[in-house]
TrEMBL record:
Pfam families xref list: ECH_1 (PF00378)
Taxonomic source organism: Sphingomonas populi
Protein family: Belongs to the enoyl-CoA hydratase/isomerase family.
Lineage, uppermost ranks: Bacteria, Pseudomonadati, Pseudomonadota, Alphaproteobacteria, Sphingomonadales
Alphabetized InterPro entries for the sequence: ClpP/crotonase-like_dom_sf, Enoyl-CoA_hydra/iso
GO molecular function terms listed in the Swiss-Prot or TrEMBL record: isomerase activity
Gene3D superfamilies documented for this protein: 2-enoyl-CoA Hydratase, Chain A, domain 1 (3.90.226.10)
Presence of the UniProt keyword Isomerase in the record: yes
Protein name, UniProt field: Enoyl-CoA hydratase/isomerase family protein
Keyword Isomerase: yes
UniProt keyword list: Isomerase
Length: 280
């Protein structure tokens, strides 16, 4: 009675996602700024908008399974976030508290609402996931193309504390030692290495990726509806508990560093970590 129909929320978010549902399987395809043939560009609107989109998807009973993928050659490989940190010309610039309050809220909602989707989520990572890789890696099944890679570009790599949940995710998916290295050095993990580390379940040629995701979605929906729904609830309970304990604290420290600590460093791109591929 109160939930939105797919046609309503599909139109609302069409600037950065295309939504297609068939057989109860909802495909979320991230795409560029109004260009559904280009890869998505991560910005404030996308960050906030996806948190609302996941809520609408979670409350729509017609969604029986969800696939999330990207467009063209990237999953999330580009970002356009206005620079609100201090610069040599304006060394006292700081992020206003009301701005960071919005980041804090939407940062929590982004992952909380993703985990509130009570049907299985399959990630089909079609290319580099350099920003918010957790949107893929929190899937129940994670498929990657041979061109996929994973990196945490927007945090320590760019002079920001990795506190928005990425630390919680990688410390559990791999281990604290490897996660610390990944988050502090700008390490980029290719698809094959991600498979070896247990980050992804399958590595496929790009032209087979989406078909494989739909195969597993249909396989899942051969089970009874309540088994499908409650299995998702069982599998996300662990993550919900961890994010409840750690998410707000990490975001608070991230905000403190951006608002105050960053004023003690020069915003010099030459001093940023360059990152590197995994070294065998």
């Amino acid at each position: 009675m109160f939930h939105k129909e797919l046609s309503q929320y599909a139109e609302q978010y069409q600037r950065f996602v295309s939504l297609h549902r068939e057989e109860g399987i909802l495909e979320i395809r991230l795409h560029g700024h109004g260009d559904d043939q280009a890869s998505i560009i991560w910005d404030v609107e996308v960050h906030h908008g996806l948190s609302h989109l996941f809520y609408d998807i979670a409350r729509d009973p017609e969604n029986k399974c969800v696939i999330i993928t990207g467009t063209a050659d990237g999953f999330i490989a580009r970002e356009e976030i206005p620079n609100s940190k201090p610069t040599p010309e304006n060394p006292d610039q700081a992020v206003p508290s009301f701005i960071w309050d919005g980041v804090l809220s939407h940062g929590r909602y982004l992952l909380n609402n993703l985990l509130e989707i009570e049907v299985p989520v399959i990630a089909a990572v079609n290319g580099p996931a350099l920003y918010h890789a957790e949107l893929a890696l929190l899937g129940d099944i994670v498929l990657a193309s041979e061109e996929a890679s994973f990196q945490d570009t927007p945090h320590f790599f760019s002079n920001i504390v990795p506190g928005d949940g990425i630390q919680t995710l990688f410390q559990r998916l791999i281990n604290p030692v490897r996660a610390g290295y990944f988050l502090l050095t700008g390490e980029k993990i290719g698809a094959r290495r991600a498979y070896e580390l247990g980050l992804v379940n399958e590595v496929l040629p790009a032209d087979e990726l989406l078909a494989r995701a739909w195969y597993w979605a249909r396989f899942i929906l051969d089970r009874s509806p309540l088994v499908v729904k409650y299995s998702r609830i069982v599998l996300t309970r662990h993550w919900k508990k961890l994010f409840l304990e750690e998410h707000g604290y990490g975001l608070a420290l991230e905000g403190l560093a951006v608002g105050a600590g960053s004023r003690m460093t020069e915003n010099d791109p030459a001093k940023r970590a360059r990152g590197h591929d995994y070294n065998n």
